[in-house]
Design a protein that fits this description.
By secondary structure, the chain is mainly alpha-helical. 67% of the residues lie in helices and 3% in strands.
Length: 589
């Protein structure tokens, strides 16, 4: 525990900690770290030094308990009186309190706490993992005894805290798909991802394969999270300036035009119709690989790449709608516009309940799908429409929460004093009133958009993206590429992704900056920007879909898909190598 002897909350928590120590006994070791907040509690730093000085005379825990047991205010004179009552050698104690080594010990605890993310007291760690649960006895006992559910949750949280965990899970799922698609399990894998799952009757309902549900249905959740992150950057982050917001749009145009030019230069004849294959960027895979090298990519660079990839997907959808419009049903787009309009109206009316937005998002998904447009884009629309709120002032919320808890404590004391009463505090009317006030105060700390992002982000990272990768990356590698046309298609797609993407992104951004129409991400090393641009050469199911649509199936479609895979793997390796060699960002990532 990181504590402050003058912190009233540490003082109140001590009784719970004493009960815990008595209950678990030798099964747990309790360590106390000094974290005095001298600005908030004048004299706290002296009290911490006094405890450390008493420790030199084997009286640390005696001083520790006495300091917390003393009623406020705890002056220096009171601390000296406590030391005298403990039978300490006072001359030595006074020297030790002012000793530089003792001061250094307190400063060392403070520095360790700040590195561990401690911002206030009390802050508790259990086996190196910060405890963020409730501070009542039974909740904290579960945190120590760790039943199976708590152990699973703790292990999952520890893994999620690793900077590379998201990228590792995504790449592992993609690797598993490739193994399954090119092994004796291929038939089973193809049967699994191709199985039809539907809503409604076989005729007239919506029936999609497992792979389509993952890429168009589940991926809407990922687009929602990315959209919320981009919205946060636009409202007050690295994309808040118009010129900064224009950067990913112009970069996405360059990332489509240059790969297309490379492909057409190598395929001037009948195979030219495959030019859309290298146009798209796989947002999920790109951000997954970028997460592995998170220490080399600044927050502004990650926001830029996320925004770029969303714009790239929008351009790819537009390409599919314009050049492969045989399945487009424009009438349904009116329903999409209506759903989007109602969501914007609810936002303007400051409707903060979540369910109307979810209902309209489902309607938007259905109408986009029926219109022939990827329903996953409903996630981006929902992210733009979820309401936000101005940040709440802490003082009124603190007063509300403190009042509710004080009333609960008062009611509990009265019940204990009442002789013969069998009622419990949770049976009193004050319990419901206090719980409502505490819930309201806690809920006000986050806007609806922030709550959705916090609740869905882990599902997006560790469920949605791995399922998407497993169903999308299973491409058979046994494709005949011996003919001249096949070689040109393979080369055009692969080179468009590996060379065209980074060249287009870097050149478009550089020209835009020179023309002063955009501002690239700040505080980004050139090597890191080039490495991230190389990662944008990673394709995804939209790339594969455009390859399929371009050649209407057949052998050249299979070759184009192989080109997407080869180009994506090469772009990922090249981008990872460049990022690994780039200097770390100067700003906090």
């Amino acid at each position: 525990m990181y504590g402050d002897y003058l912190c009233p909350y540490c003082r109140r928590l001590k009784s719970v900690l004493d009960r815990l120590r008595a209950t678990v006994g030798e099964r747990a070791t309790y360590a106390y770290r000094q974290f005095p907040n001298e600005k908030a509690h004048p004299g706290a730093e002296f009290a911490s030094r006094a405890a450390e000085a008493a420790g030199r005379q084997e009286k640390f825990w005696d001083m520790h308990d006495a300091l917390y047991a003393h009623e406020p205010q705890l002056s220096e004179a009171a601390v000296l009186e406590i030391a005298r009552s403990l039978g300490l050698d006072m001359a030595r104690f006074r020297r030790d309190v002012d000793d530089e080594a003792v001061r250094g010990r307190v400063e060392e605890d403070l520095a360790d706490g700040r590195r561990a993310g401690v911002t206030g007291t009390p802050t508790i760690f259990v086996d190196g993992v910060r405890y963020d649960g409730a501070w009542d006895f039974y909740s904290m006992l579960e945190g120590l005894d760790r039943p199976v559910g708590v152990r699973v949750q703790r292990t999952a949280r520890a893994f999620a805290n690793l900077p590379t965990s998201a990228g590792l899970v995504l790449l592992a799922a993609a690797a598993a798909a490739l193994v399954c698609a090119n092994s004796p399990l291929a038939a089973t894998y193809q049967q699994l991802v191709g199985s039809q799952i539907g809503l409604g009757p076989p005729r007239g309902g919506i029936w999609l394969s497992v792979a389509e549900w993952c890429s168009e249905g589940l991926l809407a959740i990922f687009f929602l999270i990315v959209g919320l992150e981009i919205r946060r950057e636009i409202s007050g982050g690295s994309l808040s300036e118009p010129r900064a917001a224009a950067a990913p749009v112009i970069a996405a145009l360059g990332g489509v035009l240059v790969p297309t030019a490379i492909y057409l230069a190598l395929n001037p004849g009948a195979t030219a119709r495959g030019w859309p294959a290298p146009a798209d960027t796989g947002l999920a895979f790109t951000l997954g690989v970028l997460a592995i090298f998170g220490g080399r990519a600044s927050a502004s660079l990650k926001a830029f790449i996320a925004a770029y990839a969303v714009v790239s997907d929008l351009l790819s959808v537009a390409i599919l709608a314009i050049f492969f419009a045989h399945n487009l049903a424009p009438g349904w787009l009116l329903g999409s516009a209506a759903a989007l309009g109602v969501m914007l109206t609810l936002n303007r009316w400051r409707v903060y309940g979540a369910w109307p937005y979810w209902a309209l998002a489902i309607m938007l998904w259905l109408t986009l799908h029926l219109a022939g447009v990827s329903g996953a884009l409903a996630g981006v629309a929902l992210a733009a429409c979820l309401p936000t709120r101005p940040n709440a002032a802490a003082a009124p919320l603190l007063a509300q929460a403190a009042t509710a808890l004080a009333e609960l404590e008062h009611a509990e004391r009265n019940l204990k004093r009442a002789e013969g009463s069998s009622r419990r505090v949770e049976q009193e009317p004050v319990w419901d009133w206090a719980s409502r006030n505490l819930s309201a105060a806690a809920a006000r700390l986050l806007s609806p958009a922030e709550r959705v992002e916090r609740d869905l982000a882990p599902w997006s990272t560790y469920v949605v993206l791995p399922l998407f990768a497993f169903t999308a990356a299973g491409i058979p590698l046994a494709v005949e590429v011996g003919g001249a046309e096949a070689l040109r298609v393979l080369s055009g797609v692969a080179l468009g992704l590996v060379i065209g993407k980074p060249v287009g992104i870097v050149m478009a951004t550089w020209l835009g900056e020179r023309a002063k129409v955009l501002a690239g991400p700040p505080d980004v090393a050139p090597a890191a920007f080039v490495g991230a641009a190389c990662l944008c050469g990673i394709g995804d199911p939209l790339s594969i879909l455009m390859a399929e649509q371009s050649f209407s199936g057949g052998d050249l479609a299979a070759v184009a898909k192989l080109g997407v895979l080869v180009g994506s793997v090469t772009a990922a390796a090249l981008g990872a190598a460049v990022l690994a060699l780039s200097p770390p960002p100067k700003t906090k990532v």
